[in-house]
Amino acid sequence: MTGDWQLRSALLAGLILGGFGVGSARAADVYDETTRQSLVEAVEAASVVDLYHARCRGDVSGRRTENLNKLLVGKLRITVLTVKDDLFPERSYRHAEQRLEQDFATALRDVGGCQGAKESPLPEQWKTRYEATLDAIRALP
Q1: What separation in angstroms does the CA of 92 have from each of 9, 37, 82, 108?
Q2: How far is CA 106 from the centre of its chain?
Q3: Contact indicator for 133, 83 with CB cutoff of 8 Å
Q4: Residues of the domain holding 1
Q5: pTM here?
Q6: Residue 129: is it exposed, middle or buried by C-beta count within 10 angstroms (0-12/13-18/19+)?
Q7: What is the residue-level pLDDT of the chain in tens, covering all 141 positions?
Q8: Residues 8 and 26 in one domain
Q9: Roughly what angle, to the nearest 10 degrees, separates helices 33-56 and 93-110?
């Protein structure tokens, strides 16, 4: 009886671990170049809007990235972190996030900080870009 339980446990563990190995193909290997670029643009757009809201509006919810993540998981079975790890040039979500934050900080400084951004068309442009990238992801097969 004990041997039977151990055998079943070993088989179940093998199936689970084997299943993770099969399903963990890198996003860079699965999608064509246009799709990869759309995914990167969507993550960048969501990050910029979230960074603006966190820095200049006091909204640290990360709502746009979270909404994108839900869309990616539901449609493509990948996450925002997978995109950052597999498709961003840094090949590391931590390094990708650092670059996105630095790029945003530079852009914000160039327009005069939060006040300059609020008085400029940038927030609306960032939002429009974000919505367009979501539409592009939704249109993927």
Answers
A1: 34, 17, 9, 24
A2: 21
A3: no
A4: 1-30
A5: 0.78
A6: middle
A7: 555 545 454 444 444 444 443 344 555 567 889 999 999 999 999 999 999 999 999 988 899 999 999 999 999 999 999 999 999 999 999 999 999 999 999 999 999 999 999 999 999 999 999 999 999 999 998
A8: yes
A9: 60
Q: Judge whether 47 and 65 are in contact, CB under 8 Å.
A: yes
Same domain, 24 and 38: no
In single-letter form, the type of residue at position 49 comes to V
Q: How many structural domains compose the chain?
A: 2
Q: Record the tokens describing residue 2, joined without a space.
A: 């004990």
| Residue type present at position 37 | Q
Q: Are 73 and 80 spatial neighbours (Cβ–Cβ below 8 Å)?
A: no
**Co-location of 103 and 50 in the same domain:** yes
